[in-house]
Write a structure and sequence with these properties.
Blueprint (H helix, E strand, L loop, with lengths): L14 H13 L12 H13 L3 E5 L2 H11 L7 E5 L5 H8 L3 E5 L9 H7 L5 E5 L8 H11 L3 E4 L7 E2 L2 E2 L6 E5 L12 E5 L2 H12 L17 H10 L12 H7 L6 H20 L4 E2 L7 E2 L4 E6 L4 H14 L4 E2 L23 H7 L2 E5 L6 H23 L1
Parallel strand pairs: 2-3, 2-4, 4-5, 5-8
Antiparallel strand pairs: 1-9, 6-7, 6-11, 8-9, 10-12, 12-14, 13-14
Helix pairs in contact: 1-9, 2-9, 3-4, 3-7, 7-8, 10-13, 11-13
Length: about 400
């Protein structure tokens, strides 16, 4: 069997980024508010908002910071209850706690998407919702938005894994009140760290900008769409100046210089990532031991990893499968089979009260995660698929023996 590919390295950063970084190094102008206008962070916000089809964007230090600022900008009272899916990364409930709110967890099904019955049953007891499109899997956004809009409950989209995903042709991150994205290394656009939030709400973006660290009159460097003056935005800034705490969660010009040249690469990366995912999914689904859940009909995904459920294996056999794949060179993460996995809700010991969620727990005990960077060739994808299939056959063959 051929050597497995390195799935941990990202694509090289475009040459244009290196040129922009060199210019910044020569100027030493790394702070977003030093330049009177057109700082790299400012240009990134304008370009990103235009790319996604939103009025406003705010670049910050991480997607977690974007989620936190979104909740604070909504003006939720202390101990407001925020409904989140139980299948997400620990940073999501952490952002809720950081915003002085209380996470409320709802069930997630075998297809990694929100259990709509459990979601609906808990909705009347909360003041806001964060929808985590975990690993890029989109829940039923039509049903979610209808339920939340009918109750006047604001929706924040955690789209950390979903840049480039669409729902009925609309960009994920633009359906809720706010959309939050990540530029961490294992995302579609890589700056090592960084995040951004988008919204069409002038009052909300003004609050978020000030709290992100736009002290004194630096908020004046934030404009409306395409850098235009927006009277409603200026009025909102004037209203909130000196009224809100500063959390200093800004992005630096250096990060923006790394991100901006990657935005034109997004369409290609989305196309290649989906093609790679679907090729490996077809191979795995041909085996009785694997189930790669299909997307919902309105969903067009932008994956750079693959998730699958193991079928008919005991917990001991699942562990044996993961060990066999690892020995052959493919790292398989089983979300529920770890004492410290940050995606298993029972490991979030910082929560006040961890509920028992049997559907989500059962799913996490058999759900696996494997990286599939968009740069992989067909031959490299075959090596990964061959190893996974061989590990399953080996595990089940030993069990039969």
């Amino acid at each position: 069997m051929a050597q497995p590919p390195n799935v941990h390295d990202a694509e090289p950063i475009p040459a244009a980024a290196r040129e922009a970084i060199d210019a910044l190094m020569q100027s030493g102008d790394l702070f977003r508010y030093t330049a009177p206008e057109n700082a790299p962070v400012t240009l990134l916000e304008q370009e990103y908002a235009a790319l996604l089809g939103s009025k406003y964007a705010l670049a910050v230090s991480s997607c977690s910071a974007a989620l936190f600022l979104s909740l604070k900008a909504l003006g939720l009272p202390r101990d407001a209850r925020v409904l989140i899916p139980a299948f997400t990364f620990a940073a999501v409930p952490s952002s809720v706690v950081h915003a002085d709110c209380v996470p409320v967890l709802c069930e997630v099904g075998d297809n990694y998407r929100i259990d709509m019955a459990d979601f609906a049953s808990k909705l009347d007891s909360v003041q806001a919702v964060i929808i985590s499109h975990m690993r890029g899997h989109t829940s039923d956004m039509d049903a979610i938005m209808a339920l939340c809009d009918a109750r006047g409950i604001p929706v924040v989209e955690d789209a950390a894994h979903s840049l480039g995903t669409t729902w009925n042709g609309q960009n994920i991150g633009t359906m809720g009140k706010v959309g939050c994205f990540s530029f961490q290394s294992y995302k579609m656009v890589n700056a090592g760290e960084g995040g951004i939030l988008i919204t069409d709400d002038a009052d909300l973006i003004a609050r978020a900008v000030i709290m992100s660290g736009a002290y004194e009159h630096n908020w004046k460097k934030h404009k409306g769409p395409r850098g235009e003056n927006a009277p409603d935005l200026e009025q909102a800034f004037a209203k909130w100046q000196n009224q809100l705490p500063l959390y200093n969660l800004r992005m630096s010009n250096l990060s923006a210089a790394v991100i901006r040249p990657q935005l034109p690469e997004l369409a290609r990366r989305v196309r290649d990532g989906l093609k790679n995912h679907d090729y490996v999914a077809e191979r795995l689904n041909a085996s009785p031991f694997f189930d790669v859940p299909a997307p919902l009909t309105p969903e067009r995904r932008a994956p750079d990893s693959i998730q699958f459920n193991l079928v008919g294996l005991t917990e001991e056999q699942i562990c044996a499968f993961a060990s066999a794949a690892d020995a052959k060179g493919v790292k398989v993460q089983v979300f529920g089979l770890s004492q410290d996995n940050a995606r298993a809700f029972w490991n979030w010991q910082f929560l006040r009260d961890i509920p028992e969620l049997p559907k989500t727990r059962a799913m996490l005990m058999k759900a696996c995660d494997v990286r599939l960077p968009v740069r992989l060739s067909r031959e490299e994808l075959d090596v990964i698929a061959d190893i996974l299939l061989a590990a399953a056959e080996e595990t089940m063959g030993k069990a039969a023996a």
